[in-house]
Design brief:
Layout lengths: L1 H43 L4 H5 L7 H10 L6 H13 L13 H35 L3 H16 L2 H15 L12 H29 L3 H8 L4 H38 L5 H10 L3 H29 L1 H6 L4
Helix pairs in contact: 1-12, 5-8, 5-10, 5-12, 6-8, 7-8, 7-10, 8-10, 9-10, 10-11, 10-12, 11-12
Length: 325
């Protein structure tokens, strides 16, 4: 028996390290894919690369020569790609050819507002989905069917439609909340609700189905036999099992919120990288686009790393066996 435990110990030690290394490699692959796709699109866009980098503006021959030299456009394509990756590794994104300022300075002025919106949306999504799933899981079949239909309707609506409906009701009709561009918490409520509506509905459906399955498992029956109340069975036992598939879905939804934030910031006239990205794409300001694509990929990777950590806390077997159950 001791020999078996001794043989398994190195495997259990190596498994978490292996999982961390695999996660690191996959994260680097996501970042590499994002920056490579941006490079390819840059060279596939109509017009010369120098014209694209100049944001379509009429530039002098000296400016065109400077752009060509900075981005090494006269070199063969593989060398251009290597130089492109080298600049990114050193954090050199150059200057915006539209804003006429360093790219990171332009992003830094808009990033806090977007991070505020994303953070509030993630919080509302997580808390709202858990509360809604718990409340409806103990309801009758007809109530669950009605709630599921409403959730499907919310998921089907585009975020900008949800935002417009919220504006029409709470700002223009009831006049409870400011319409557009308001600072502070009042101006954050409606954008957060619009962006969190669909993710909350999706997570609630997954959690509710998980809870309904979990409360019928043998461990739940055993807990009831020991005199534990139904609410305690749901909160202390069933919810933990239901959270396992929901956490993986939450990571994917959190990564997709960045695209939704672009639309919501425009609908509610909020400051943020959404409006900056729209302007950069419209003006073909590729240094800004490149930086924002990389930033979105980094946020996606970090959120999924956090979700992976939470998954390990919920299910300790995932940490020891190096797999997600």
């Amino acid at each position: 028996m001791a020999g078996v435990l001794t043989a398994r110990a190195p495997r259990l030690v190596r498994s978490p390290l292996r999982r961390i290394l695999l996660r690191l490699v996959s994260s680097l692959a996501v970042l590499w894919g994002a920056v490579t796709a941006t490079f390819v699109l840059l060279h596939l866009m109509p017009g010369g690369t120098a014209d694209v980098l100049a944001a379509g503006a009429q530039v002098s021959p000296a400016t065109r020569a400077a752009i060509t030299a900075q981005y090494r456009l006269g070199d063969p394509l593989p060398q251009q790609y290597a130089a492109y990756l080298g600049r990114l590794l050193h954090g050199d994104f150059g200057d915006s050819y539209v804003l006429r300022e360093p790219v990171w300075r332009a992003i830094g002025t808009q990033l806090p507002a977007t991070l505020q919106l994303l953070s509030s949306t993630l919080l509302v999504t997580a808390v709202g989905a858990v509360l809604l799933a718990q409340a409806t899981a103990r309801a009758g079949r007809r109530t669950r069917a009605l709630v599921a239909s409403l959730e499907a309707l919310v998921v089907a609506l585009p975020p900008y439609w949800v935002g417009l409906l919220l504006l029409a009701l709470f700002s223009f009709q009831l006049r409870w909340l400011p319409a557009i561009g308001a600072p502070g918490l009042p101006g954050l409520i409606l954008p957060t609700a619009a962006l969190a509506a669909a993710p909350t509905a999706v997570l609630s459906q997954v959690l509710r189905e998980g809870l309904l399955r979990a409360v019928e498992e043998p461990f739940a029956t055993s807990a009831r036999a020991r005199g534990i109340s139904e609410q305690a069975v749901v909160l202390r036992h069933a919810l933990r099992h239901a959270l396992l598939p929901a956490t993986a879905l939450f990571g994917w939804l959190a990564g997709s919120l960045i695209g939704g934030a672009v639309v919501i910031e425009i609908v509610f006239s909020r400051q943020g990288i959404g409006r900056l990205l729209l302007s950069a794409v419209q003006n073909k300001d590729m240094p800004v686009v490149t930086a924002l694509v990389l930033l979105a990929a980094i946020v996606f990777v970090l959120v999924n790393l956090m979700v992976d950590t939470v998954h390990g806390l919920i299910d300790p077997r995932a940490r020891h066996l190096g797999r997600t159950l």
